[in-house]
Amino acid sequence: MPKFDANGLVSAVVTDADNGMVLVIAYMNEEAITKTRETGRAHFWSRSRQKLWLKGETSGHFLNVEEMRIDCDQDAIWMIAKPDGPTCHTGVPSCFYRRFTDDGSLERV
After folding, report:
1. The CATH number, out of the four listed (3.40.50.150, 3.30.450.20, 1.20.1260.10, 3.10.20.810), of the domain defined by the range 10-108
2. pLDDT in tens, 8-37
3. pLDDT, tens only, 60-76
4. Count of CB atoms within 10 A of residue 29's CB?
5. What local confidence, expressed as pLDDT, does residue 51 receive?
6. CA nearest 93: which of 71, 78, 108, 76?
């Protein structure tokens, strides 16, 4: 198992299996990792709601995990997944849909 932080969490980054785009960064606890491995669908720990959640449980936009890896320090997980639709709750493919401009403002990409 990973080396969880003091809250029992480990960060997890999810990339698109088809194009390598970073889709989302979230947190997982031991239960989320177990459920993800059992079902093949990404589960996370919601820090705001303080509960386990299956990504896509309300939207239908699941993240179908093809591979899970852990980094050399065992404190971060990388999941390679095929999304069933937009990953971000805003309806766009990736949660990383804004970039900083030269003047420091944000623009949508």
Report:
1. 3.10.20.810
2. 999 999 999 999 999 999 999 999 999 999
3. 999 999 999 999 999 99
4. 19
5. 97
6. 108
